[in-house]
Specification:
Chain A is an alpha/beta fold. In chain A, 46% of the residues lie in helices and 14% in strands. The longest helix of chain B has 44 residues. The chains are: A alpha/beta, B mainly alpha.
Chain lengths: 470, 465
């Protein structure tokens, strides 16, 4: 059984929750072979692998969003498009909600239509549809910016659908976006099942990123968001199973067009043997966060909260654990901000560390993210009996707050609220009973609800089910 | 014309007749300087040498100068557009030192090539040694002068260039006087040797003056000498476009000459260069269009095209882009039609003058047919060339290449075809090929203009190739 994993901006080049989850999944299924299709932004600054490949990973193919794709041969410069094909292209350029991805995939890969992505992009039909859309939706904006925006969106998509040669018994996309739509096109091309697992919600995350960019006009931001929705919906409609980590995410998927009957929930899992509580005595208060230093984690709010905490707890030390090289500009901004708050000696950006060996040194785990799925780091903290402070995003409240089985294991705060975060940290640190109770609850919940074995067996069943049904 | 637009635009900033006159002279000197200068000086020298020069000697000199010009033109043609593009890019990126260095690099190629090719040719002739040496040097200096004029197209010192040609002219005239007076006339063929030497001395004087302007224009002298050669990889069609076009013009001459076919009426006076002279006479009136075109393209069209491209590459809305495109098309069409009408009038006038001159000179009037074909052909060929340049302005290299190829193949095949027929049809091949090239290039230009926005945008790749 060969599972074709399609990952965008993550494994094996970028470390983080999704990549760690994937690595864990593959390592724990030694009898299954995996092929990886990794989608990265550009070839020019490709990072090194951040993970040691498991023995059952048989290949890693990397494709790039900024690559040109295969060149047209001289004889393929003129497409043989009929009226139906042109109508398909029109729907494609307009990001039509009920877009027929099957017909589109067939058209792009048709041997008789003489299609090459260059000629399609440069051809009159595509151009006319782009112009029509511009005149209808954006007539007062710069035409050049519009054309480049649309071409930037659809060029990689066309290249991927046309050029990628990646086969497996089951395709498993780890997000929507380009990964999801590649998965959909491969499923349609090879008639193989497609599983989609969404950790964070791709569209929401991209929307958040766009909000932070000030050089893109609002209208074009909307265009980009529409495009991401377009891809996501294409992926939802063509997936056989759509997995999310928690109910809230599943509800949003449904809202975004995922068919109800395909939805399923498989949470993240943690190994309770590797991550377990310890009673180490400490002379200082260690407050930690296990995150990638990127804007979506809102490290600035975290630093502001640390400042407030340090004023009350002079012996507190703050550890920001995780990769710092993903967005160096943001990391430098955080360093400067930390320095401006006078926290330079108290806040430590440690870089990537072996979490299992250091997590027990922490007294509290803090998360101020503006968007999350179901953070693995929270599960690791819970399994280690460490109380958590996290913003009310993704599955955080579902994971931390009291449920019908057990009591709370952390405190939930509002996004972008350093005061609330600081108050929650201080509350936990100053109240030993509360800290112990939250830690114990967390451990119990991690073992009963988020055990890695349970997660692995769910995916194993899923893969085997598809293979047996074929 | 690399960068000439800015200078001409500056020259046209005023509206006075004097300013317009200066700009037109500038354009003229840049485009036709070497050709015009050579033609005038040749005529004056042969007049001054007068009886000392035999008819055969006069023919040899004319033939030498004419073929030196033609071959220098051909030699430089595959380099011309590449250098123009290179200079334009270097000016844009303000790498002025590279421009000067590339000039030296170009000369490193042109000078040995000129010496080698002309030496091989003259070695096979029976001319006296002094004449052979003069011929080799003349060809080399003409090639060098044509090269430097490409670079000086972006110089604002048009007065200096004018003076350079005037001084060279004066030096030649003085030399021919002095040399013919002092030389012993008993030496065989001395008159033609001295005439050629006089012309050469004047041409060298002109070149020295032009070189002074060159080093004044491009003060910086650093960078790579041969980096312009990389442009053959970047824009390979540039080399072929001008080469095909230039060979296209002269291919008929080679075919006629190698077939030993001459126009009978001209043959009695200039037996060996009859067809060549007809082509030259045909091309001569197109200097008007060449100058008009340069002034137009580098001023009005440049402004309109700039406006259009700025909107295309900048923040223009589609409706603004369409308006700018329409303006550009209107300017182009108006000036194109105006140019053709003026050129047609000049051509008609030239035809009348030639006809009268032939009658007065006792030349067989039937020979006017060939001249007429060449005149009409040249009218179309110059507008085919203008189309080709406009296509290149928008980087439509393939269309430009097709246009020049149609002309080359058309002129070669049709000249051969008509060479088999009666002498009165000589030149018809050139005329038909020119009309074909004009029609094809006009069609390609109009097709491009119609879909300019689409073509420009569709050629842009978002990601690297």
């Amino acid at each position: 059984m060969i599972i074709g994993i399609i990952a965008e901006g993550s494994y094996p080049y970028i470390s983080g929750g999704v990549s760690s989850w994937l690595s864990q999944l593959m390592e724990n299924m030694p009898d299954v072979s995996f092929k990886i299709l990794s989608i990265m932004p550009c070839q020019s600054d490709l990072p090194d692998y951040k993970y040691t490949l498991a023995k059952n990973v048989i290949s890693v193919d990397t494709v790039y969003i900024d690559s040109h794709g295969k060149r047209c041969s001289f004889f393929k410069r003129y497409n043989k498009l009929d009226k139906n094909d042109i109508a398909i292209l029109e729907d494609f350029v307009n990001f039509q909600e009920d877009f027929d991805w099957l017909a589109f995939t067939k058209l792009i890969n048709s041997k008789h239509k003489n299609i090459c992505t260059d000629s399609l992009l440069q051809g009159k039909p595509m151009w006319q549809h782009m112009v029509e859309r511009y005149e209808r939706d954006f007539p007062t904006l710069g035409f050049n910016s519009y054309i480049w925006a649309v071409k930037s969106m659809i060029t990689p998509l066309l290249n991927f659908i046309k050029d990628i040669d990646f086969d497996a018994d089951v395709f498993h996309a780890i997000s929507t976006g380009y990964a999801g739509i590649i998965g959909a096109s491969l499923k349609l091309r090879y008639s193989k099942p497609l599983i989609l697992t969404e950790h964070g919600l791709y569209v929401k995350e991209r929307e958040q990123e766009l909000t932070d960019i000030d050089w893109i006009p609002e209208e074009f931001k909307k265009l980009w968001v529409d495009f991401f929705y377009f891809m996501s919906k294409g992926c939802y409609l063509n997936s056989d199973v759509i997995i999310s980590l928690y109910k809230g995410a599943s509800d949003i998927q449904k809202l975004h067009g995922a068919p109800q009957d395909k939805l399923d929930i498989i949470p993240n899992g943690v190994d309770p043997i590797i991550y377990k509580p310890s009673n180490s005595e400490k002379s200082v208060v260690n407050i930690g966060s296990i995150i990638r230093v990127v804007p979506i984690k809102d490290v600035i709010t975290m630093l502001k909260a640390f400042k407030l905490v340090s004023e009350k707890l002079p012996n507190a030390v703050f550890h920001i654990i995780g990769p710092i090289d993903e967005d160096e500009e943001y990391y430098n901004k955080c360093l400067e901000f930390s320095s401006s708050l006078g926290l330079i000696d108290k806040v430590k950006f440690t870089g990537t560390l072996d979490i299992s060996s250091i997590i027990n040194d922490l007294d509290v785990l803090v998360f101020t993210s503006v968007s999350e799925g179901q953070p693995l780091a929270i599960l690791e903290g819970m399994a280690s009996g460490i109380p958590i402070v996290a913003t009310d995003v993704g599955a955080c409240s579902e994971m931390l707050l009291e449920d019908y089985q057990s009591g709370p294991c952390g405190l939930v705060t509002s996004c972008c609220s350093p005061t609330e975060t600081a108050e929650a940290i201080l509350k936990i640190v100053s109240d030993t009973v509360l800290r112990t109770t939250l830690g114990t609850n967390g451990r119990n919940r991690a073992v009963s609800k988020y055990s890695l074995n349970h997660v692995i067996s769910r995916y194993q069943e899923l893969y085997k089910g598809f293979i047996q049904n074929r | 014309m690399a960068g000439i637009g800015f200078k001409l635009k500056k020259a046209f900033t005023g509206t006075s007749l004097y300013i317009r006159y200066k700009a037109t002279i500038h354009a003229g000197s840049v485009i036709v300087g070497t050709w015009l200068w050579s033609a005038v000086i040749l005529y004056v020298i042969t007049l001054i040498a007068g009886d000392q020069l035999s008819r055969q000697g006069e023919t040899i000199i004319i033939q030498t100068v004419l073929y030196s010009l033609i071959f220098a033109h051909i030699l430089l043609s595959p380099i011309h557009l590449v250098i123009v593009r290179y200079i334009a890019d270097m000016i844009y990126t303000e790498k002025y030192g590279d421009i000067r260095r590339s000039f030296y690099g170009l000369n490193m190629i042109i000078i040995p090539l000129s010496i080698l090719s002309s030496s091989i040719y003259y070695n096979s002739t029976t001319h006296p040694v002094l004449y052979k040496i003069s011929g080799v040097i003349l060809f080399t200096v003409i090639s060098m002068t044509m090269s430097i004029m490409i670079y000086l197209s972006s110089s604002k010192d048009y007065e200096g260039m004018g003076k350079s040609y005037m001084i060279g002219f004066a030096v030649s005239i003085l030399s021919v006087f002095v040399l013919t007076t002092l030389s012993p006339l008993s030496i065989p063929h001395i008159a033609e040797q001295l005439s050629l030497a006089s012309m050469l001395i004047g041409m060298i004087a002109t070149y020295i003056m032009l070189y002074r302007i060159f080093i004044k224009t491009y003060k910086e002298n650093n960078g790579s000498m041969l980096s312009f050669l990389k442009y053959y990889k970047k824009v390979p069609s540039f080399g072929f476009i001008a080469l095909f076009y230039t060979i296209g013009i002269w291919s008929g001459n080679f075919i006629m000459d190698t077939s030993n076919l001459i126009i009978p009426s001209l043959g009695s006076k200039l037996p060996k260069i009859g067809y060549d002279l007809a082509v030259i006479l045909g091309l001569l009136p197109t200097l008007v269009s060449a100058i008009l075109y340069t002034v137009f393209i580098e001023t009005e069209f440049f402004t309109a095209q700039n406006e259009f491209m700025n909107l295309v590459n900048g923040v223009g809305t589609l409706s603004q882009i369409k308006v700018a495109k329409k303006t550009m098309e209107e300017i182009l069409s108006y000036n194109f039609v105006k140019g053709i009408v003026i050129q047609a009038a000049v051509t008609f006038l030239a035809l009348s003058l030639y006809s009268s001159y032939f009658k007065l000179s006792g030349i067989d009037p039937s020979s006017i047919w060939t001249v007429m074909y060449c005149l009409i052909g040249s009218l179309f060929v110059v507008y085919a060339y203008i189309n080709l340049n406009i296509l290149l302005y928008f980087d439509m290299r393939f269309s430009a290449l097709i246009s020049s190829l149609v002309f080359l193949l058309g002129n070669m095949s049709l000249t051969m075809f008509f060479a088999l027929g009666e002498p009165k049809y000589y030149g018809m091949g050139y005329m038909i090929a020119s009309i074909m090239a004009f029609l094809v290039s006009s069609y390609l230009r109009r097709s491009f203009m119609k879909d300019a926005v689409y073509i420009i945008f569709s050629k842009q790749n978002v990601f690297k190739g």
